[in-house]
Design a protein that fits this description.
The protein is 26% helix and 26% strand. By secondary structure, the protein is α+β, with helices and mostly antiparallel strands. The chain folds into two domains: 153 residues, Clavaminate synthase-like (Double-stranded beta-helix, 4-Layer Sandwich), CATH 3.60.130; 90 residues, no CATH class. The strands form four sheets. Strands 1, 2, 3, 4, 5, 6, 14 and 16 form an eight-stranded mixed beta sheet that branches. Strands 13-7-15 form a three-stranded antiparallel beta sheet. A three-stranded antiparallel beta sheet has the order 9-8-12. The longest helix has 15 residues. It starts with 8 loop residues before the first strand and ends in a 7-residue tail after the last strand. Bound molecules: N-oxalylglycine and manganese (II) ion. The site of manganese (II) ion has 4 residues, from loops.
Length: 282
Amino acid sequence: MATTTATRWEITDVAPNIGCTIRTDKQTLLSGAKTKEIRGLMESRGVIVFPQINLTDEEQIAFTHTLGTFAHEVGESKAGMDTVYPITMDPRVNPNASYLRGAFFWHIDGTMSDMPILASIMSARALAKEGGETDFCNTYAAFEALPEAEKRELEKLKVVHAMWRSQLYHDPEPSYASMKLWQSIGRNTLPLVWKHRTGRKSLVLGATALQVEGMDMFESEALLVRLREWATRPEYSYRHTWKLGDMVIWDNTGTMHRATHYDYDSGRLMHRTKLEGEEAFA
Ligand code: OGA
Ligand code: MN
């Protein structure tokens, strides 16, 4: 008797300017046959949701390899086995949990490096009873919708980013030792508008954005706040409410993201893998 393996591949947009869901099966996803299409959707939609795809850690790692170069966490041995990284506020599960608290505020991953990661892939392993959604916004769409004259002005600007700026959001009165430790990571000056190889342009903002270079401190802060408010307007945003087994990919080069509030002891656990960056901020 002939058997046919039905493959499922249904793509639906979830919001006008960001996000789509792909309903598929593990086999199709892991085959690598859809790599090109997925990479295209990462760029055009920013966020891809695979509802309740329920990949195991091994499958998530294998899937990540089909999309690009598997990125290792800082400090993790490259010679070692590829692993998923636990995103949790529980220090017993992740000893670096306190650093992850910056994730409650809009950010791009890796602004302290000149070549930020291309994308993150995150699966829900345990949910918080309340909160713990993930918000995303499309920084391409937000830039493209600005008036032409303003775009030209913004393209001239550079912004100093510092990790300590994002840490102050959750630890506003740090010890001197903490501040010195955060500051030892240094600073990174990035263009406010990223001119990608494709010719498209996106805003580079987020919790590490400290000061527009050469601009009065008050004006700089007002501009960064105004642009964050603009980029995160509902028309450029999507909030993902997680179900167990969901997996989400975000293109870290054309989006910002944040977690919504959840209790540190809620048990929420995400398993994350990442794709190595392929294009420097420019
Ligand atoms: C991250 C992150 C948000 C979340 O893993 O980089 O910001 O909802 N996560 O856990
Ligand atoms: Mn993040």
